[in-house]
Amino acid sequence: MALRFYNTLSGKIEEFRPLQDNQVRMYACGPTVYDYGHIGNFRTFIAVDVLRRFLRQSGYTLHHVMNITDVDDKIIRNSSRDGLTVKQYTAKYEKAFLEDASTLNIEQPVLVRATDHIPEMAQFIARLEQKGFAYRTEDGSYYFRIAKFPGYGKLSKRDFAGMEDGARVDVDDYDKDSARDFALWKSPKPGEAFWETIIGRGRPGWHIECSVMSMRELGESFDLHAGGEDLIFPHHENEIAQSEALTGKPFARFWFHARFLLVEGEKMSKSLGNFFTLRDLVLKGHKPSSIRYLLSSVPYRNQLNFTFDGLKQAATSVERLRNFRFRLTTANFPPGASESMAQLARETIERMKSALEDDLNTAQAQAAIFEMVRKANAAIDSGEIRTDDAAKLLTALEKFDQIFAVLKDDDVPKMNSILDWARAEAREKEIGKELIEIVQSGELSDAQVNQKIVEMEQARRGRNFSKSDAIRAELASAGIVVENTKDGVRWKRK
Ligand code: AMP
Ligand code: ZN
Predict the structure, then answer these.
(1) Which amino acid residue places its CA nearest to atom 18 of ligand 1?
(2) What is the topology classification, in CATH, of domain 15-258?
(3) Quick check: CB of 197 below 6 Å from ligand 1?
(4) What stretches of 261-332 adopt beta strand conformation (E)?
(5) What distance in Å separates the CA atoms of residue 385 and residue 332, rounded to the nearest whole number?
(6) Ligand number nearest to the C-alpha of 74
(7) How do the domains of the chain map onto residue ranges?
(8) Best of 33, 44, 209 for a ligand 1 pocket test (most atoms within 8 Å of beta carbon)
(9) Integer Cα distance of 298 and 286 in angstroms
(10) What is the distance between the alpha carbons of residues 54 and 275, in angstroms, rounded to a whole number?
């Protein structure tokens, strides 16, 4: 088997194969850095991260590029409102985005910034004009002539046969329902930021930036292009039109789109009060690992309904996995191996692989690991597990974590830095008491608990009972219940 996923361009689930050997060239549309990223954005970025991680786990080498949109109408408007340059304004949100992505263990692609490629965009537009695909308007803006590109609509499956030739849209907030000649370049209005280029003064449209930077980094034809489903039209449709008009070659071969996220059953919006940035959730006391787990738990093409109940369940799932790993790494198993456990580990790895190969079915992959945890826990209880089995089960767990990335127990330090940020930004009002409790009232991270238990066991074996009792009491006061079983020490939170 090989990876199969839904290609928006063909409208079918297809087997994915790169154009060149084992090299995957992939471009994902990145954030517009005018504000903090919300959980809808991170739903898509995590879906792409899962795809990226699975491609690498499957043995591909990856050239993965993502743009940072650091110029658009909103950015120009907000920066001049705040009396800042475009760069000064976006630097803060770009930094915040990269921090948030790292908080969620999203691996970093090669980053390219729109403002670093303005001369190339101007050149691209000049060449489109030479070929008759672009025209200049009186004010010095440039538009793409859709009527000249017969393939227009092939990604979004819309029929534009009856469209009015030369009708234009002027803003970044493109009309979603009708095709109009779209802006490639906009001349500046008085007082607006602009760049001086071979096609005159102005700033690039949003679509042109992705065509120029993706082809510059990955070549005229590349393997995979990704983003949220809202980008299918007009953004990606327009990228295809510009790029293929210029080169006459197919642009990206596979198009991957993540479905929009809902919150408590509704479209996320500031006016409904259900709009959350990653930082909002952490300030309420939710762990980054729970958020990542929840955002990856529903396959990318299914609608994820984000709920606080779901977030709690995700936290429990992550804790179960971490506790299972702790149990496997610390218990004293008898030497040897049992065929049933080796088989369980093998089957789990196989099931996870086929689930992900099947249009990235993350829910099935998670179900497979939990079935393993359940069976292995029962086997530990009944004394069936041997040393070699533990190693094999751990390998299956590691494979799982190469994709889902929730086992490393670094939530508390990450939450701590978001707390510091909130204080520095004078956002004390938003800091929930749960976060303070976790960070400051001594909630021990799983790793810290594990470490203390190791120390307690060492003290006990060395017959230093006053020390082992003191550690046990310290754990108890932090809400950790320690149990001695015949297979070693287990713990849980009260
Ligand atoms: P933006 O910063 O608005 O350009 O969006 C960055 C990425 O987030 C794009 O791939 C969007 O498609 C995606 N996105 C925005 N809102 C949502 C949402 N509610 N659910 C899923 N993806 C989203
Ligand atoms: Zn894009």
Answers:
(1) 40
(2) Rossmann fold (3.40.50)
(3) no
(4) 262-263, 266-267, 305-306
(5) 10
(6) 1
(7) 15-258
(8) 44
(9) 19
(10) 30
| Ligand 2: centre distance to CA 243 (Å) | 12
**How far away, in angstroms, is 207 Cα from ligand 2 center?**
6
Cβ–ligand 1 distance for 29 under 6 Å, the answer: yes
Hey, whose CA ends up nearest to atom 12 of ligand 1? 228
Distance from Cα 259 to the centre of ligand 1, integer Å:
9
Q: pLDDT truncated to tens, each residue of the chain (494 aa)?
A: 799 999 999 999 999 999 999 999 999 999 999 999 999 999 999 999 999 999 999 999 999 999 999 999 999 999 989 999 999 999 999 999 999 999 999 999 999 999 999 999 999 999 999 999 999 999 999 999 998 999 999 999 987 766 666 566 554 544 444 568 999 999 998 888 999 999 999 999 999 999 999 999 999 999 999 999 999 999 999 999 999 999 999 999 999 999 999 999 999 988 888 999 999 999 999 999 999 999 999 999 999 999 999 999 999 999 999 989 988 988 889 999 999 999 999 999 999 999 999 999 999 999 999 999 999 999 998 889 999 999 999 999 999 999 999 999 899 999 999 999 999 999 999 999 999 888 875 567 777 788 788 888 888 888 999 999 999 988 888 888 888 876 677 888 77
Model pTM score: 0.91
* H or E segment and range at residue 13: strand 12-15
DSSP state of 235: I
Q: Is the CB of 268 under 6 A from ligand 1?
A: yes
CA-wise closest residue to 328 among 392, 256, 399: 392
